Amino acid sequence: MLTFRNTAVVYVLLILGLMTYDYSHELSIWYYVVPFVAVSLLVAWGSYFIRSGFFLKAFCDGDKNKSQVAITFDDGPHEQTPLILDVLKKNNAKAAFFCIGKNFRGKEEIVKRIAEEGHLVGNHSFSHSNFFDFFSVKKLLEDVSKTDALILQTIGKKNRLFRPPFGVTTPNISQMVAKNKYLVMGWNVRSYDTSIKDRGKLLHRVLTRMQNGSVILLHDSTPGMDEILQKVLDHAKAKNLNVVSLEEMFAIKAYEPV
Questions:
Q1: Structural domain span for residue 228
Q2: Tens of pLDDT along 3-55?
Q3: Averaged pLDDT for residues 62-90
Q4: Which residue, 92, 111, 137, 213, could crosslink 62 as a Cys pair with Cβ 3.0–4.6 Å?
Q5: Cα 112 to Cα 30: distance, rounded to the nearest angstrom
Q6: Is residue 190 pLDDT above 50, yes or no?
Q7: Average pLDDT across the chain, whole number
Q8: What is the structure's pLDDT at 55?
Q9: 130 with 34, same domain?
Q10: How many other CB atoms are found less than 10 A from the CB of residue 229?
């Protein structure tokens, strides 16, 4: 697995090469520029795609030999979350909800219901700031700790699951994850439900990608998510795919003893 440390070494060597380059030398400067650009693109790819495992390990792919899928929701709690819970209850299906701490206020009962009905509550940061990826390790720890405290206060459980905002990983986020001993949860079916407005296209994207071991990323706040979810569950049933929790799919524990 590629690591930040290895990449940093390459960067340093390339930068030193550029700084000490003798322009009178026959060796072209492109021997340094091209690798520098290539490494930069590689780092950008590794940061954006959580499945790459570039900066940290994330649980993204279930066992392709088991007829199981896991459904996850980000950015709640939201006014639509109870409708989603109704659909899950009706279909006897379990899901994971990665919640934003700042959204807890006034919606504590929704979070309690998520836990009471057997679903998982995970940490999706407190702020979900557009600049989250640029926070210092100290600021990251302060941010996520506030959400862990809210989860403990609301459902009485000490959280272990973390999903980074936007799915972006960085060296600082990796350090924060290690300090908090989080289990980082990714996905392998991204719905893009926050940007795809055509419901037919959205469902086609999700349903055609659903297979053994799929971890599906959805959002509480997407308009009509309860109806979208029902279609997803109907398709899973038609394909004989069991909808299971992340705990069952990855044989992990979502909470620590209090």
A1: 68-249
A2: 455 555 454 544 555 555 555 555 565 655 666 566 566 666 666 679 888 88
A3: 98
A4: 213
A5: 58
A6: yes
A7: 89
A8: 87
A9: no
A10: 23
Three-state SS sequence of 164-191: CHHHCCCHHHHHHHHHHCCEEECCCEEC
Q: Are 216 and 73 in contact (CB under 8 A)?
A: no
Measured between its terminal Cα atoms, the distance across the chain in Å is 34
The catalytically annotated residue of 74, 75, 143, 193 is 74
Q: Identify whether residues 241 and 167 lie together within a single domain.
A: yes
C-alpha 101/C-alpha 109 separation (Å) is 14
The total number of structural domains in the chain stands at 2
Calculate ∠ Cα 236-204-96, nearest 5°.
Answer: 50
Identify the weakest region by mean pLDDT among 16-20, 117-121, 147-151: 16-20
Q: Verify whether residue 193 is a known catalytic residue.
A: no
Scan for tokens 């700084």, then name that residue.
Answer: 19
* Residues paired with residue 214 on neighbouring β-strands, in sequence order: 69
For residue 119, indicate whether it is catalytic. no
The answer to whether position 222 is within a domain reads yes
CA-to-CA distance for 243 and 165, rounded, in angstroms? 24
Q: Which of 78, 193, 219, 226 is catalytic?
A: 219
- By C-alpha distance, which of 108, 49, 60, 52 is closest to 82? 108
CB atoms within 10 A of CB 232: 25
The model's pTM: 0.87
Query: Which residue type, as a one-letter code, is found at position 1?
Result: M
- 57 is written with which tokens? 């390990």
Question: Do 169 and 127 share a structural domain?
Answer: yes
